Amino acid sequence: MTIADKQLQRREIITKAVCGKGRKFSTVTHTVTPPHHPTSILGAWIINHQYEAVRSGDGIEVIGTYDINIWYSYNKNSQTDVAKETLSYVEHVPLSYIDPKHRSSTEEVAAESTQEPNCIEANISSSGTSVVIRVEREFAVEMIAETKVCVAVFPGGIDDLDGKDIDYGDGDFEDLDPDLLDDEL
């Protein structure tokens, strides 16, 4: 029996799939006012990063907090202290791809911090009373939802094909987005 002799049938299956993706890199500026006027900055770092993702309009919002710690000297470099401040943020990450046929009532969202918030620059402000900090961060987001996929079905299976190619007909494969393929394959 050849492949042509088998009757190809198609089925639509409802499944959960990644129906939207996005990525955003950003640099933000924060101002922290320590209890003493800083003379010099000895170090600045970010710890305790926490976040969650929620669907919002045409994208996903990442809502989070982190602690900024600034080690600085004051009183003409004669003493040191660490200023600590917890900052909140909301980062809107637009979805660069959205499956228009997904079921919106089943949406779930997820975010991954592909670059944890990191202090790239810390300077004393022009007034000399605060510290201006530049922070880099990056997020990748996904929207998972129910959608329909079409699959080929061979009644009785395809055990006797012996490595022969399968003709799937005149399917419209030109519209497939190669960027959606998993990088780990």
Helix vs. strand class: mainly beta
Q: Calculate the mean pLDDT score and round it.
A: 86
Shape assignment: rod-shaped
Q: Uncertain runs with pLDDT below 50, 5 residues or more? A: none
Task: Strand order, main sheet: write it out.
Answer: 5-1-7-6
- List the helices and strands in order: EEEEEEE
User: What is the count of DSSP helices, taking H or I runs of 4+ residues?
Assistant: 0
Radius of gyration: 26 Å
What kind of sheet is the major sheet? 4 strands, antiparallel
C-alpha termini separation: 33 Å
Instruction: Tell me the number of strands.
Output: 7
Pfam family, one: CotE
InterPro entries: Spore_coat_CotE
Protein name: Outer spore coat protein CotE
Keywords: Capsid protein, Virion
Which SSEs are present, and which pair or pack?
Elements: E1 9-32, E2 38-56, E3 59-74, E4 79-94, E5 97-98, E6 103-124, E7 131-153
Antiparallel strand pairs: 1-5, 1-7, 2-3, 3-4, 6-7
Provide a quick synopsis of the model:
This protein is mainly β and about 180 residues long. Helices cover about 0% and strands about 65% of the residues.
Provide an overview of this structure.
This protein has a four-stranded antiparallel β-sheet with strand order 5-1-7-6, with no helix packed on it. Strands 2-3-4 form a three-stranded antiparallel β-sheet, with no helix packed on it. It has 185 residues and is mainly β. It is rod-shaped. It starts with 8 loop residues before the first strand and ends in a 32-residue tail after the last strand. The chain is built from no helices and seven strands. The protein has one domain (14-149). InterPro entries: Spore_coat_CotE. This is Outer spore coat protein CotE. Keywords: Capsid protein, Virion. It comes from Paenibacillus mendelii.
